[in-house]
Amino acid sequence: MMAFPSVAAEGQSRYTIEQMKGNVYRFTAGHYRSVFMVTKQGILVTDPINPSAASWLKQELKKRYHLPIRYMIYSHNHVDHSLGGDKLADADTIVVGQELAAEDMKFTQLPTRLPDVTFGDHLHIKLGDSDVELKYYGVNNGRGNVSMHFMPANVMFVVDWVVLGRMPYKDLQGYDIQGMIDSTEALLNGPKFDLLVGGHAEAGDRKDVEHYLGYLKALYAKVRDGMLAGKDLKTLQKEITLPEYSNLKMYKQWLPENIAGVYRTLIDQSYFNFRPDIHQ
């Protein structure tokens, strides 16, 4: 796992800004992270996280760089990453979101700045001498959750459906485990990247992403095969261990909850409880 020094922001120990690679920086607010890119023509920011964090970041960016915020990109619709958009974006900032994320924000009347520009599977944004490629790989976590590839820094930013150095969150609320596996495989089969920064936990390289994908596949297979053998949730939580992934933070605490999340998914989405070939 790659490690980076954390420089505390003045007077706000809960907020930090770190240079990750080239002109791409990571903003941390508690357990949440976003990234931004600085060019001579202006700044591109991503998830505002929440109103307090967004207000602080906007002030800090203006103090440090004296540049306008040209773009703000939402990773997806979930409120713990998308609130505060009205605080971070300027009046003339172009706000971008995948069409499903934008639709959900509108339908649910989310109190944030709504996207001005939406897209389906792909969008390319050029700002000065830098580029960002946005890609939607299908369902994974929430609605309209995309990857963001920053060039020439060659940094990938992904929120929630790839989490490095830590277990997926508790019982996988809002996750589509099959979609997460598919999206992560597509990410690894796409353009090479030097560094992946997540919306939570650690930053890392391709090997770290491969390790995470291996965990998702092993977890899914163990729960699926156990259910096909007629085992109930309590039995699965007692029997399933994945020691090769015990280095992930929260392994002991969240493995039973991860198992429960996959179990629920296979009932809710795949109707395993109606399968005629499963007998308990």
From TrEMBL:
According to the record, the signal peptide region is none
Keyword list, A-Z? Hydrolase
Q: Which GO terms describe its molecular function?
A: hydrolase activity
Which residue range or ranges hold the Metallo-beta-lactamase domain?
31-200
Q: What is this protein called?
A: MBL fold metallo-hydrolase
The species this protein belongs to is: Vibrio eleionomae
Which lineage ranks, top first, belong to the organism behind this chain?
Answer: Bacteria, Pseudomonadati, Pseudomonadota, Gammaproteobacteria, Vibrionales
